[in-house]
Design a protein that fits this description.
Helices cover about 45% and strands about 15% of the residues. It has two domains: about 1-170 and about 360-375, Glycogen Phosphorylase B (Rossmann fold, 3-Layer(aba) Sandwich), CATH 3.40.50.2000; about 180-360, Rossmann fold. The protein starts with a strand and ends with a helix. It has helices at about 15-30, 65-85, 95-110, 130-140, 150-155, 180-190, 210-220, 240-255, 270-275, 290-300, 310-315, 330-340, 345-360, 360-380; strands at about 1-5, 30-40, 50-55, 90-95, 115-120, 145, 160-165, 195-200, 225-230, 260-265, 280-285, 305, 320-325. The chain is globular. It contains 14 helices and 13 strands. Helix 1 crosses helix 14, helix 2 crosses helix 3 (about 95-110) and helix 6 (about 180-190) crosses helix 9. The strands form two sheets. It has a seven-stranded parallel beta sheet with strand order 3-2-1-4-5-6-7, with helices on both faces. It has a six-stranded parallel beta sheet with strand order 10-9-8-11-12-13, sandwiched between helices. By secondary structure, the protein is of the alpha/beta class.
Length: about 375
């Protein structure tokens, strides 16, 4: 099949990583895959792609969210219209509201007869236009997919019958085996190797619960003065500035700033080594679509702290993680202590092996291809 996969960015956000990994697995299975994403001048995908790609030209990102989303939807429509006229796709599959609205517009214009939309998670926006776009991108899709049961249930409450198609993890890429480059990465980023490292991935965001992680870290410093908090990533199209100011205010008044490292967005090649440098990875999120970081950390031989909520409770067994109440900083601190005290390489390896077998990109690609084929068969019926 000829498949077009649309994502909202070239940066390594969870949904973008999912899109790229799915594209590679579909490509390896023999399909003709093109990954598309908006890109400002000079931008490239965070990782080299094995399949075809289309960078949709956009100007520098406007500060206003509504204007930014509107401009990216229009850029997608303008880019895809002549592309579809030259060579139509068997399937067009978007992973966010920007691509979803572009495809909905093309569908309204009769240029395509339907599209697939994966919901990783849904956001709550203050701006009515953003909420309307999000709603349209889901409700006008011919087939909606999601990556966890919790979102399948959430969508069902809105009258949408979504199919659950899980994520995957590349167990060869994320490995506990130390590499010669790990020490150089630690030195370059300023990660201490003579203490303990608590790692969070995703930047400073309310959904990631970063302020409560910092509160937990402040509590832990009294007992673990050698502990360093490393917060990696943070490339996002959403505006997290108000929450970042709250985080910075607490950081400065607490006196913890010398022990907190914010790396900002990192090169994709740095991520496997970054996990290996950590002593524990914390992901006590308030909301997640799935939580790819958890699988990547476990495959890297690092214990994880997660929220005792779905989707984590769906795919993790009790022994796979240390569990926390995401609304209680003391609970997060206790879970970090539990993870550090109970670190067991054999148990983590067993968890990683089981999860990597359950969640492979090859299996995900096979399930996607089956759904695409059924949709195609229906559209070809007289």
């Amino acid at each position: 099949m000829k498949i077009g996969l649309l994502t909202h960015s070239v940066n390594p956000r969870g949904g973008v990583v999912h899109t790229v990994e799915l594209a590679h697995a579909l490509h390896d299975a023999g399909h003709e895959v093109t990954v598309m994403a908006p890109a400002t001048p000079g931008q490239q995908f965070f990782r080299p792609l094995r399949c075809a790609s289309e960078l949709v030209p956009v100007a520098s990102t406007p500060p206003d969210m509504v204007a930014m989303v509107d401009s990216r939807i229009a850029a997608y429509v303008n880019h895809l219209t002549p592309l579809l006229e030259r060579a139509p796709f068997d399937v067009l599959h978007c992973h966010d509201g920007i691509g979803g609205n572009a495809l909905a517009t093309l569908q309204d214009r009769g240029l395509i007869d339907g599209f697939v939309r994966t919901v990783h998670h849904l956001d709550s926006f203050a701006q009515p236009q953003l909420m309307a776009w999000q709603h349209r991108s889901v409700h006008q899709a011919r087939q909606v997919l999601c990556v966890s049961r919790v979102w399948q249930t959430t969508l069902a409450a809105q009258g949408i019958k979504a199919l659950e198609v899980p994520n995957g993890v590349d167990a060869a890429r994320y490995s506990p085996v130390p590499q010669a480059t790990d020490a150089g990465l630690a030195q370059r980023l300023g990660i201490r190797t003579d203490g303990l490292v608590l790692l969070c991935v995703g930047g400073v965001e309310q959904r990631k619960n970063t302020v409560r992680v910092l509160q937990a870290f402040i509590q832990l410093r009294a007992q673990m003065p050698q502990l360093q908090l490393v917060i990696a990533g943070g490339a996002s199209l959403l505006d997290h500035s108000a929450y970042a100011r709250e985080f910075q205010a607490l950081l400065q008044t607490s006196g913890a700033a010398p022990d907190v490292l914010l790396t900002g967005p990192l090169a994709d090649d740095d991520m496997p080594g970054l996990f290996r440098l950590a002593d524990v990875v914390a992901m006590p999120s308030l909301s997640e679509g799935f939580g790819l970081v958890v699988l990547e950390a476990l495959c890297s031989g690092v214990p994880v702290v997660v929220s005792r909520i779905a989707p984590f409770t769906e795919y993790l067994q009790p022994q796979d993680a240390s569990w926390a109440d995401p609304l209680d900083a003391a609970s997060i601190a206790s879970a970090v202590q539990h993870a550090l005290r109970g670190r067991d390489a054999q148990r983590m390896a067993a968890s990683a092996t089981r999860l990597a077998a359950q969640f492979s990109w090859q299996r995900s690609a096979h399930l996607h291809a089956d759904i695409y084929s059924k949709m195609r068969a229906i559209s070809l019926c007289p």
